[in-house]
Amino acid sequence: MEQQSIVSYKKSSDSDGVALEPQTEATLFDFRWFFQLPPLLKGMGVSIAACNTVVISFGLYSLLNAVPSNPDLDRLERARAEYDAGNFQKAIALAKSIPQESALYQDSKTSLKRWRREWHTAAAQYQAAEQALKEKRWRDVLAEARKMDGVRFWRRKVESLVEQAKPELEAEAQQLLNQAYAKAQEKDFTGALNLLNQIPPETTTAAKIQPKLAEYEEKQRIKAEHLLQQAYNQAAKRDFKSALNYLSQISPGTSTYDTAQIKMAEYSQKQHFKEEVERTVQLARRESEEQEESSEPFSTEPFISTETDEKTSELNPGNQLQEVTP
């Protein structure tokens, strides 16, 4: 703080007249007087200031600690810590010990319900991952690990299974990559893409396949458009069966797939109509041939001889029925 001086003026006379001469009398906030006090008084002042500081500090401490602790809140927090540590039964027991009249009773009930559900789900997922590891289904180990969330204890355990499966996953990923290359050599880009998409993203091989994915998707699109054009060409020749064969080779996910599905429905209907017409024509031709055969002359002699007629007449029972006597 800037010190301010109190200035007084006294009269002085000289040959020219009366003048005011400034004279400093005292300075505000001037603490030099404190250092001029006797040592005993200075010590008493310091002691009083120190005592005031201690009293104020003690008062604040007492005020802050005057609020009583909440044992139910402490119990619920301990239960959560035990749950995260994997001590499931202990966590459940602590949460259940919160009395019904407590303000945290509903929170404890909600936590109990969620913990039970999450714990049993995570335990089942861990067991599935463990079984997959035993059966050397490396990708299934990763699939189960991806589902794991919420329970730190089970997440830590399943991470150890993933670490065990990683070397085998890398070898399997490389094998899938080689198979994809072979499919691409056969112009089967759909098959190549299916193989590449099976490579787990957690492997180092997955980082290498992005350019190939883009390349094969573009080639798949070009092939799909070519197949669609071939189908159009065959349909123009009314060879709907061949057109349907081309359309069936167009893979889902391509830009022409929806168009191919529409055309398949159309060409299937036209092929069915074409087959009906062909059957009708064949039936009419067959009937015509049969009529021509039936119009040729043939012998009018009776097929059954007179002798046979005579024998047949002997079997005529007549018009009267005779009751059989038992």
What report would you give on this structure?
By secondary structure, this protein is mainly alpha-helical. It has a domain of 71 residues. The chain is 67% helix and 6% strand. The chain has twelve helices and two strands. A two-stranded antiparallel sheet has the order 1-2. The longest helix has 38 residues. The N and C termini lie far apart (152 Å).
List keywords for this structure.
326 residues; mainly alpha; 2 strands; 6% strand; elongated; disordered N terminus; disordered C terminus
Rounded radius of gyration (Å): 53 Å
Largest sheet: 2 strands, antiparallel
What is the residue-mean pLDDT, rounded to a whole number?
77
- Arrangement of strands in the largest sheet: 1-2
Quote the distance from N terminus to C terminus. Answer: 152 Å
Q: What class do helices, strands and sheet pairing give?
A: mainly alpha
- Count of helical regions: 12
